[in-house]
Design goal:
The chain has 61 residues and is an alpha+beta fold. The chain has 1 helix and 4 strands, in the order E-E-E-E-H.
Length: 61
């Protein structure tokens, strides 16, 4: 499956004014992250476990 086939959604932390926006797509093996304003540019992929740790850290600082 290519990145163009992923089901991307905008982060709830992204601004509503069209400013800094991050999109995320969850697949069986990874979580993919990209800049919504530059979707042709390669994003990054992290393990689902790694993403869960990141979210826990971000939520609890």
């Amino acid at each position: 499956m290519s990145a163009t086939e992923f089901a991307w959604f905008k982060s709830s932390y992204s601004g509503s004014q069209g400013d800094d926006c991050v999109e995320v797509a969850v697949t069986e093996g990874a979580v993919h992250v990209r800049d919504s304003k530059d979707t042709a540019r390669a994003g990054l992929a992290v393990s689902r476990d790694g993403w869960a740790r990141f979210i826990r850290f971000a939520a609890h600082g």
